[in-house]
């Protein structure tokens, strides 16, 4: 498709003016085909400036999701990813679950501009109807013994946290087990789901869903005290393609640590863990109680002191929040 070829060149020279003649010669297309392709890209939301008598320029602030720009920014050590970009989907995790029997490749990444039914742990929702967010799911069905399934969420949360800290120059913290916070507001969440073989009970695939509020500029009223975005908190805008590429360039190395160096992984996770030494509220089914968050143990389970009694919880049992003063 000519518009994709044009976009690839514009992204390789983002911010530079390229003449229509240059684009036409480079791609072996007519000037009219270049013009039509540029208009198609503009209709898709790419910020392309047409400079009279000079050519076209993809503006640096253009932030439409783009496979070619993500691939351009991926580091050499990144695995080979198969990308699926969707305009709208109920949930990227659900999309992969519904299509995993259709010969999906290992390391398939689904990206959506909008999710209408974004999901979190324990049936909670994740607001993901704003086009300024990253809504991404990764599918794996090969070499699964290379990973400790029980630590995948922890590894992913740390990978996302470190990526955002580096690319946005911020200092994120992790609320056990899967939520990322900045300045007291939730900016990202993770949902990991596995599939077992019925006959053997062994893991046959898993999906890691990641939602990040990057350039989201508004939230429903009921979420304004809880959630925010990188752009709202820092007063800056960010390239989602750059963040995605940075995350996918290093995510695999974090996932492999679940087997090769789980102690090191958990030590780093503990450094990021929020509410240590503070009173938290613990929700388990219909029960609610308070305790002091102590640490995460070597299995990645939360350790809480409840009135002198040390209790350990796994991620499937509970949710937590900081106790109100």
Description:
GO terms for molecular function: ATP binding; biotin--[biotin carboxyl-carrier protein] ligase activity; DNA binding; transferase activity. It catalyses: biotin + L-lysyl-[protein] + ATP = N(6)-biotinyl-L-lysyl-[protein] + AMP + diphosphate + H(+). Biotin binds at residues 91-93, 115, 119-121, 186. Residues 20-39 bind DNA. Acts both as a biotin--[acetyl-CoA-carboxylase] ligase and a repressor. It is built from 9 helices and 15 strands. The chain is α+β, with helices and mostly antiparallel strands and 325 residues long. The protein is globular, with a radius of gyration of 22 Å. The strands form 3 sheets. The protein has a 7-stranded mixed β-sheet, with helices on both faces. A 5-stranded antiparallel β-sheet has the order 14-13-12-11-15, with no helix packed on it. Helix 1 (2-12) crosses helix 3 (31-43), helix 4 (67-73) crosses helix 8 (240-260) and helix 6 runs antiparallel to helix 8. The protein starts with a helix and ends with a strand. The model has no long low-confidence stretch (mean pLDDT 90). A hairpin with a 6-residue loop joins strand 9 (185-196) and strand 10 (203-213). It has 3 domains: 2-58, Arc Repressor Mutant, subunit A (Orthogonal Bundle); 67-272, Bira Bifunctional Protein, Domain 2 (BirA Bifunctional Protein, domain 2), CATH 3.30.930; 279-322, Roll (SH3 type barrels).
């Amino acid at each position: 498709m000519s518009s994709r070829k044009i976009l690839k060149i514009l992204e390789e020279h983002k911010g530079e003016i390229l003449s229509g003649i240059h684009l036409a010669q480079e791609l072996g297309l007519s000037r009219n085909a270049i013009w039509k392709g540029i208009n198609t890209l503009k209709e898709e939301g790419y910020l392309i400036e047409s400079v009279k008598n000079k050519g076209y320029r993809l503006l640096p602030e253009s932030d439409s999701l783009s496979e070619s720009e993500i691939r351009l920014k991926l580091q050499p050590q990144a695995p080979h990813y198969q990308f699926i970009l969707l305009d709208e989907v109920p949930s990227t995790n659900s999309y992969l679950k519904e299509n995993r029997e259709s010969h999906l490749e290992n390391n398939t990444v689904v990206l959506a501009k909008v999710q209408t039914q974004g999901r979190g742990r324990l049936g909670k929702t994740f607001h993901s109807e704003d086009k300024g967010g990253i809504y991404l799911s990764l599918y794996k069905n090969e070499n699964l013994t290379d990973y400790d399934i029980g630590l995948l969420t922890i590894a992913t949360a740390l990978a996302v946290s470190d990526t955002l800290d580096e690319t946005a120059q911020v200092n994120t913290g992790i609320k056990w087990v899967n939520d990322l916070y900045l300045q007291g507001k939730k900016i990202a969440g993770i949902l990991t789901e596995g599939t077992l073989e019925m006959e053997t009970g062994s893991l046959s695939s898993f999906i890691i869903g990641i939602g990040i509020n990057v350039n989201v500029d508004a939230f429903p009223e009921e979420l304004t005290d809880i959630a925010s975005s990188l752009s709202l908190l820092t007063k800056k805008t960010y390239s989602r393609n750059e963040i995605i590429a940075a995350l996918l360039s290093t995510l695999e190395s974090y996932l492999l640590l679940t087997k090769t160096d789980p102690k090191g992984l958990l030590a780093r996770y503990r450094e990021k863990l929020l509410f240590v030494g503070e009173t938290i509220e613990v929700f388990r089914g219909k029960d609610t109680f308070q305790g002091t968050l102590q640490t995460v143990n070597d299995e990645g389970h939360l350790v809480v002191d409840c009135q002198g009694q040390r209790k350990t919880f796994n991620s499937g049992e509970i949710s937590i929040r900081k106790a109100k003063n």
